[in-house]
Amino acid sequence: MFRLIRAWDAERELSPEDFQYILTPHEAFRQARIYYELSSDNYPHSHRLNAHDVPWRKERSVNLFSAQDERRYAHYVDDAYDFTKSNIDSG
């Protein structure tokens, strides 16, 4: 099962045996686009994501072959997508 955790939580939540399951940033983001809500359109306006939030996990049934979320058009802000990609890339 794929799960996103923040880098600073990994120290407390992961045991040394779990390190073998850590994915490359590219693969982690590919799976995040499947299992997590990465479109800001899916969040209520009252819920503003910040750079330290883990996005919501999708509630519908998804699997590794489900469609991946795509980023909104380049000239629109998409906080959920951009913050998640930035956090994964920075480790």
CA-based shape: globular
The number of strands is 0
Strand content: under 5%
Tell me the count of domains. Answer: 1
> How do the SSEs run, as a string of H and E?
HHH
Total helical segments: 3
Uncertain residue segments: none
Largest sheet geometry: none
Give Rg in angstroms. 13 Å
| Rounded mean pLDDT score | 83
- What is the end-to-end distance? 20 Å
- Sheet/helix structural class: mainly alpha
Structure explained in plain terms:
There is one protein chain. The chain is mostly helical. The protein has one domain (7-12, 24-90). Helices cover 33% and strands 0% of the residues. The protein has three helices and no strands. It has helices at residues 7-13, 25-35, 79-90. α2 runs antiparallel to α3. The longest helix is centred in the last third of the chain and has 12 residues, at 79-90. The protein is globular and about 40 Å long. The chain starts with 6 loop residues before the first helix and ends with a helix.
